[in-house]
Structure formats: C-alpha cells, structure tokens
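Attaching the record inline, Q. Sequence:
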Amino acid sequence: MGLGVARTSTGISVAIARDPALVRTVRLIAAAVARRASPDEEFVEEVRLAVGEACALMVGSDAAPELRGGGPITVHLRIDDRLGVDVQSDGPVVAEDAPDSDVDGVEPWALLRGLIDDFSISREGSSTTLSMSWPLA
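Structure, as predicted:
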C-alpha cells in the first residue's frame, strides 16, 4: 500500500503505509489544508510540523522496528470552526517518550504536546487515534 487520498464532505482523508518516506506527503497536504483555513504562515507551519511529527511517531522509525509491522496510518483533516486533525494507527503505537528517545535534546511526544493546546490520544482495541485541533481566527 502506498498512498490513498479521499475527499469527504467534512474534510480530506489520507491513508499511508508505515513508510517514513510518505510522511512528507502528509505534511504537504496538511500545510495546504491549513493554508485554506488561514493565511497566517506561522499557523500553517505549526500545523505542518505537528501533523508531520504525529505521523512520524505513528509510523515509527528504524530505531523502533517493533512499530513498523502494523496497518496503515490514516489522517483525517477537517475545517469547521476549528482545524481538526485525527491521525489513526491500526497497529501498535507507544504514546510516550522512552528515556533514550530524544533527538538533539528534544523528546518527540513532549514536542508534539507542546505544539498543540487541544491534543488527545485515545485507544480502542488495537487502534490508536491522536486528535489535534486549532482555533481559527
């Protein structure tokens, strides 16, 4: 599975394989949706960074091969009175920073929590959903 995109009446959904190379595509889509919601480039950059970081964490990395075997990552972006993003994994996700997880002194989950005021993680069965939203001015 590579990349799948679907436009719905409430937003856009993108499904990617657990391939770190596909995270860049999701970042670009998130930036385009954020730009439609607001012309503020700082806002667009914050959304792009948060969605990219969330997808990268859900995809896993070479340092965490146990996370690579799960199902696809699905990202749903919607604009209503807020810009909402849900990133869902059908496979295993470790939603906290390991003691040795810092990259250049930054812990990835802590960074993500610091970027977004409205941030939650929910689990149902083997599925994990990371939900984020930003107010629109």
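The beta strands are 3-8, 11-16, 73-79, 82-89, 118-124, 127-135. The two ends are 37 Å apart (CA to CA).

More tomorrow.
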